[in-house]
Every structure is written in structure tokens, then in C-alpha cells.
Design goal:
This protein is of the alpha+beta class. Helices cover 29% and strands 16% of the residues.
Length: 247
């Protein structure tokens, strides 16, 4: 009797069966890429705001002093006698800006390193002459004090102007058409009455002999009034002061 033998599978057929089995088991699937992790907060990260250039630059000091000089007193001094630009050309000035000074709580910085040039360009300097009445004074204030603000030249003088415009001058201090004698306390009181938020502790009044020399007003970096501080304060001890007339 003949023996039964199962049919033989060719090699090609065997490979086809193995390939089909592999596909069925998933071995032929493409490797999946992991999904990116979601932000930790569950929300898209907010875009960073651009830095406020001027605010971030004003570092290394605590506050500002706006110094206003009674121009006729300066012009009658030995120093002012030779300043023809202020004392001959601008004869009718009363209070002018002497400076805008970065201050520490004690002491002050001066002649700081800056990426800005030391020299103030003529066009920029001349635009300040309605406040600082001599080109030489503009350049000196920038080199000694403005370089310590951290601001560019243009931004520093813009801020100086904003500080000056922040202060309202009472009638007694707007004109130098005639000589006046005022109580020192009255000068402070008139400034306080004209400027809401200004206090006596934010005002320094200096004198040269019996004459009013300067009125200094202390301000924060955002130009709010604040108390003056430190050992650099100069306060006139005279009860009454002469405000000379313009020459």
C-alpha cells in the first residue's frame, strides 16, 4: 500500500507566510514618534515683553535732585560775572536749571563711564538753552551727572525737561523784574501750595550770603516728589533771603 506524504512547501511560499505573520503581529509597523510634552502650565507660554529701556537703564543711584538756580544771584557772583551767555545775553532770567543730578541716599555719583560720547552735539545742546542757559553748562551737566543716569544723552535731557515741567513755579519765583526779600519759609510754602504732593522735606533751599542761591527739589526716578536725604543736603539757615533783580 502506498504511504501518504504531505505536499512540500516551496521556499518562496514559506517566506511569504512568514512575512504575512510578521505583519499580523505588528512587527512591520512604523515606529511611532513621541508627542511633544505640553507646557507645564497647560497654556502656551506668553511672549516676553520688550524691556523698558529707560527704566531698566536707570540703575546705580536712588533718586534725582532738580536744582533750580536764581540767575540774578549767580550773575552777581564772581563766578557768574564772566558768563556772558547767561548773564549778558539772557538778562531777564529768574529761576533756571542748574542741574539734574542722580543721587545716592548718601552722597552722589559723578563722571561715570558711559557708552555715550562726552561731548553733547551742538544741535542737542542748543535745544536746552531755554532751561540751561549756556552751552558750557549743558556739556558740564552731561559729563558730571548725566553720564551717571544710565540714559542716552537725548533721554537724559528729555527727562530733565520733564522734571522741570513737573514743578509749577509760584508767582513770587517766576519773575526777576524787581528785587524782592522773602521769608525762607514763605518760599517753601509757596512751592508746596503750587505743587500737590510736594512737602517741605523734599525741598532744599541754599543761599549765598543773604541772597537766594538755589532751590533743589528731590524726585524719584518716575519724577514723583520724595524726601531729600543724606549728608549732601545744604539748607540755608537764614530766615529771610534777597532775590536780586535781573541786571
Amino acid at each position: 500500500m502506498a504511504r501518504f506524504s504531505p505536499p512540500r512547501t516551496s521556499g518562496f511560499a514559506a517566506l511569504a507566510i512568514m512575512a504575512a505573520l510578521a505583519l499580523w503581529l505588528g512587527y512591520g509597523k512604523e515606529e511611532e514618534k513621541p508627542s511633544p510634552a505640553p507646557p507645564q502650565s497647560g497654556k502656551a507660554a506668553p511672549k516676553a515683553s520688550p524691556p523698558k529701556r529707560n527704566a531698566s537703564a536707570e540703575r546705580g543711584f536712588d533718586y534725582y535732585v532738580l536744582s533750580l538756580s536764581w540767575s540774578p544771584s549767580y550773575c552777581q557772583s564772581e563766578e557768574g560775572a564772566g558768563n556772558r551767555q547767561q548773564c549778558a545775553t539772557h538778562r531777564d532770567l529768574s529761576l533756571v536749571v542748574h542741574g539734574f543730578w542722580p543721587q545716592h541716599e548718601n552722597g552722589y555719583p559723578e563722571f561715570c563711564e558711559s557708552r555715550e560720547p562726552e561731548r553733547v552735539p551742538d544741535d542737542l545742546a542748543r535745544r536746552q538753552l531755554d532751561l540751561l542757559p549756556a552751552v558750557g553748562l549743558v556739556g558740564h551737566q552731561w559729563r558730571k551727572h548725566g553720564t551717571c543716569s544710565g540714559l542716552s544723552q537725548r533721554a537724559y535731557f528729555d527727562k530733565l525737561r520733564a522734571a522741570y515741567n513737573r514743578v509749577k513755579l509760584p508767582a513770587e519765583l517766576k519773575s526777576a523784574d524787581r528785587q524782592k526779600t522773602l521769608d525762607t519759609a514763605r518760599i517753601s510754602a509757596a512751592l508746596i501750595a503750587a505743587n500737590p504732593g510736594l512737602r517741605d522735606s523734599a525741598i532744599d533751599i541754599t543761599c549765598n550770603g543773604a541772597r537766594l542761591d538755589e532751590i533743589r527739589i528731590c524726585m524719584t526716578k518716575d519724577l514723583s516728589f520724595r524726601d531729600c536725604a543724606g549728608s549732601g543736603r545744604r539748607v540755608c539757615r537764614r530766615d529771610r533771603l534777597v532775590l536780586p533783580a535781573a541786571p
